[in-house]
Specification:
By secondary structure, the chain is mainly beta. It is about 10% helix and about 35% strand. The longest helix has 8 residues.
């Protein structure tokens, strides 16, 4: 039986998001599944929804890349993150490496490379690369970026 989750998806530009049931992604490699405690849409999401920048690679598309919560599961290549650990997800991550991702400046990469072929954020679950997570440092209240 396929496990599912709810995803707020853009089905058509200029229309409200639709909350739909989609398959729950299983993290693999260096991917992380986060149980979302808080989520937000940023202004770029609003521009996409209105169709002001209609550059999404496909529809329906799951918006939302500013999330915080707890690690639910990790792929086999993830080190340094454990189930239940509190994390915040960095909003500008990209799946496709380029000169910006290599230098740690993912927010400058081409927005069309953001996100995933799989649902990224939902009311209760978030999928992302492990490198897109920050977790609280055990030595202080400052956040550290996951390596």
């Amino acid at each position: 039986m396929v496990r599912t989750m709810r995803a707020a998806q853009l089905v058509e530009y200029g229309k409200p998001l639709e909350v739909r049931e989609v398959p729950l992604p299983e993290p693999r490699g260096e991917e992380v599944l986060v149980r979302v405690g808080g989520s937000g849409l940023c202004h770029s999401d609003l521009h996409l929804m209105k169709g002001e920048i209609p550059i999404l690679p496909y529809l329906p598309f799951t918006l939302g890349h500013e999330n915080a919560g707890w690690v639910e599961a990790t792929g086999e290549g993830v080190r340094g993150l454990a189930k239940g650990e509190a994390v915040a997800v960095y909003g500008g991550w990209s799946e496709r490496p380029d000169r910006f991702t290599w230098s740690g400046e993912e927010q400058l990469t081409d927005i069309r490379k953001w996100g995933s072929a799989r649902p990224a954020a939902t009311p209760n679950t978030c999928w992302c690369p492990a490198t897109a997570t920050f977790c609280p440092s055990t030595a202080s209240t400052r956040w550290r970026r996951h390596p």
